[in-house]
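Handout, section 4.2: multi-component inputs.
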Amino acid sequence: MFDYKLLAALAAVVEQGGFERAAQVLGLSQSAVSQRIKLLEARVGQPVLVRIAPPGPTEVGRQLLNHVQQVRLLERDLQRQVPALEDGGMPERLRIALNADSLATWWAGAVGQFCAEHKVLTDLVVEDQEVGLKRMRAGDVAACLCGSERPVAGARSLALGAMRYRALASPAFMKQHFAQGFDACRLARTPAIVYGPDDFLQHRYLASLGMQDGFLHHLCPSSEGFLRMTEAGLGWGLVPELQAREQLASGQLVEICSDTPIDVPLYWHHWRNGGQLLAQLTDHLRHSAHHWLVPL
Amino acid sequence: MFDYKLLAALAAVVEQGGFERAAQVLGLSQSAVSQRIKLLEARVGQPVLVRIAPPGPTEVGRQLLNHVQQVRLLERDLQRQVPALEDGGMPERLRIALNADSLATWWAGAVGQFCAEHKVLTDLVVEDQEVGLKRMRAGDVAACLCGSERPVAGARSLALGAMRYRALASPAFMKQHFAQGFDACRLARTPAIVYGPDDFLQHRYLASLGMQDGFLHHLCPSSEGFLRMTEAGLGWGLVPELQAREQLASGQLVEICSDTPIDVPLYWHHWRNGGQLLAQLTDHLRHSAHHWLVPL
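Output:
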């Protein structure tokens, strides 16, 4: 068997983002943690950590972390069957990659009670879909919520529903640019707000109106910042309906062209042998996601 | 003089996050953009782009971008003096690094009208302070809003005020853990929410209550997700007062220990010779930040 004290040290350094906090969590001195990492590297014959701030796993380090995470989930199942094994009731951690807009809107409401009841702590990683699935493949996360359907090897994907986006702007923005009524050509010449280089929602929306060319835009890599910039009249942008309900009801934001939503499907990727906790969370999402997402 | 057609191609590829969109914005074919980048690399004698998705500048590429950005700001000043030079009124882009909580709260309100009046588009980059200042030093951004006071070479820093954070939790969370009243020892054993490995606010808060050890926590690298998780009762966390006003007023969130705020100072770093637009934005922030920030 592996020496799990060494693997636990590696997991703690990566999860806590440093040796000092890893030592705190493990109840060890910092030099003891360093010692364990060095011993692990001697056994493996190569570095397991990239010594930057915060430290990140090397390729082989990632494979070890993947293994630790799987073992932990299996241990958890065993503990339920053999309660005497219970190690003081430390909550389990689940590392999950998800898209920024889900995290900014429905995610916490969907998993809150589940996490409290099952004593789960979550390490959330905000990634667009390609990177999220790459992390999944590398074993860096146990699950990934993203817009891509195709599962990675060893995992399953479950369609949860779609987030509905609407193209919104402030009344002042509408008055400034569309006092004579909405006009797609004019829209393409007003500033948009774009989340980042991988966000093509605004492009898709313009394309759906027959506008294929480039357009002016702010870049704002924050869901809430995106909404604030829209409210402040800096530009128009596709905002999750879930996030703008109050603003739409109060008239603080308006749809720039009535009832032209874009639905973005969301898939839950999870390991096939991820243990009972992950299977339960998957079931929970399967049954509750429809409260927030529209059917595919 | 340099060949600015080539430099503009480099800037467009980096700003647009790819050759295809750069070509759109420049009104060129994609192969023409590639050709210009190759020509630039031949002149410089080394690669200017790292060919990943999205493409990033090499070290020398960053120096060239730095120069392009400075020249653009100076051109803008010249155009104001010699209006005939106006090149069709394309808005100027300002690339700014800032902390996630500012972007999620007061930033858009503070700059909205300024950007509309001055026809400025913003490329925002969310970074914690060290990385933000590193980008500033590399010339990758024109300004940086962060918690670190010391300016990088060639730049000035201006104290804008402080964001006030309060330790908040949901009433259900309080009832579950503090039915017998608040207790710092108990707090250290309930789950917190932490933004990321560089977020020590929760540590500082616990330390201010005399608790020095590690604690359980969720990791949630999203300002709005952080708030949603707090509302959903997943844990307690330090939330900007600006962001939780409604929740505090409605009782959806409560301060876990009455009136124990933590103030985090914010500094605006800007190039000393960044042109008139940047100077105007700096003045604007100097005079308006007090609407959202508390005095230092």
